[in-house]
Amino acid sequence: MNDHATKNSALIIATLMSFLSPFLISAVNIALPAIQKEFSVNAVLLSWVATSYILAAAVTLLPAGKIADIYGRKKIYVWGVLLFTGSTFISAFVQSVHMLIFFRVIQGIGGAMVSTTGMAIITSVFPLKERGKAIGINVAAVYLGLSSGPFIGGLLTQHLGWRSIFIVSTPLGLVSVLLVFLFLKGEWADAKGETFDMRGSFIYCISLVVLMHGISNLPDTIAVGSVILGFLGFVCFVWNEIKIENPIFEVRLFKNNRVFTFSCLAALINYAATFAVTFLLSLYLQYIKGFSPQTAGLILMAQPIMQALFSPFAGRLSDRIEPGIIASFGMGLTVLGLFALIFIGYDSTPAFIAGILILLGLGFALFSSPNMNAIMSSVEKQYYGIAAGSVATMRTVGMTISMAIATLIFASNLGKAEITPHVHPEFIKSVRLSFIVFTVLCLAGVYFSAARGKLWLKKK
Q1: What is the pLDDT of residues 67-111, one digit of tens each?
Q2: Contact at 8 Å (CB) between 41 and 416?
Q3: Which H or E element spans position 144?
Q4: pTM for the complete prediction?
Q5: Do both 93 and 223 map to the same domain?
Q6: Among 232, 276, 393, 432, which is 20 to 30 Å from 459 by CA?
Q7: Which domain holds residue 237?
C-alpha cells in the first residue's frame, strides 16, 4: 500500500472511533434522567455513570500510549476497539446502576487504548505540513459524535429506552476492527525494544484514582486525605520517572519543552472548565424546562455542530499560522460563553441557551485542533505515543475534574436528594455556581495558551 493510501486508511479508521467514543459520552448524558428513573438513584451516584468512564480512561491513557510505542500502535488499537465494543454491548443488559458503572469503566479502558493510539498513528503517517489538517478532521469527528449523541441518544431514549444507545453503537466498533484488518497495513513501534515501566504505571494509576476519588467526594474529611495522598503519589511518580532509563512518561518533555508543557496545561484547564456544560444543561433542559430527551438533545446539538464545522478549518489554519494564537483566541471565546451561562434561570429561553452553545462550539473548535497540532508537533516521533497519551490524559483528567466540580457543588447544595421540583431552587443555584467556577478556570487557561511560546520558532 502506498503512502497516500496508508494515510487515508489511518485517518478513516482513527476517525471512525473518534466519532463513536464521544457519541456514547454525549448520548449517555442525555439519557441520565431515564437511567435515574429506572434505578432510582440520587444525583451524586448518577453522575458516576458519566464520571466512571472518564476516570477509567484517564488511568489507562498513559500506560496504553507507552505500551503502543513499544509493541505496536495498531495492535493496541485493535485490542482497545474489541474491549470497548464488548463492554458497550454488555452495558445494554445490566440490571443495576452499579453494574452499569462497572462496564462503563471497562468501556473507558478500551476507549483510552483507542484514543491514544489513534492520534499517534495519524501523527506517524502524516508529515508536519499536513498534520494540522488531518488532526482537524479527526477532531471534527469527535465533535460530530458529540453533536449527534444528544439528538440520536434522545431519540433512542424516548422511543426505545436508554439501553438502545449501547445496542446501536456496537456495530460501529465491529466495523472499525474489520477495516483495520482489511486496509491498515504496517505497524508503528518507534520505541520497540524498550522495557515497560511497570512500577511507574502502578504508582501513576493508584495516585490518579485516589486523587480523582478524593476530588469527587470533597469536602468530606476522608476525601481531603485522599487528595493529599494522591498528590504525594504523583510526587513519587515523577521521582521514579526521572530515575529510570525507560520511563512510562518522559518527564523531561515537561521540563525542557515549554510549548508542550503549556499546551498540555491549556488542554487540562479547557476540559476542566467545559466538559460538565453538557451534563448540566442536559439536566437543566429536562428538569427545569420540562423538555423531552429528544428536544433537549436538539438544543444541545448547537455546540458540537459548530465544533464539527470549524475544527477542520482551524486545523488547516494552524498549519500556516502559529497554533497558539488561534487556540488562545478560541479559549477567549469560551470564557465569554461560560460567563453568559452564569445568568441562566427559570426564564432562560431555548434561543438564549442555543446562542451561547454556538459561541462555545466556535471557541472549542478554534482551541482544540490547533492545540493538539502544537502538542504533537513539538515532540520527536519516538514520543508520539507518550504525547498522544499525555494530551488525552489531560483531556480525561480535565473531564473528571469538571464532573467532580459539578458533583461537589450538587452534593453541597442538594445532598443525596433526587432532583424533584421541591429542590429546583437549589439545583439552579448549583448550576450557576458551577459556571462561575468554570469561567474563572477558563481565564487561567487563556494565560497558559497565550504564554506557551511559538512552535514554528522551535521547529526552525
Answers
A1: 888 888 888 888 998 999 999 999 999 988 889 999 999 999 998
A2: no
A3: helix 128-160
A4: 0.73
A5: no
A6: 393
A7: 197-245
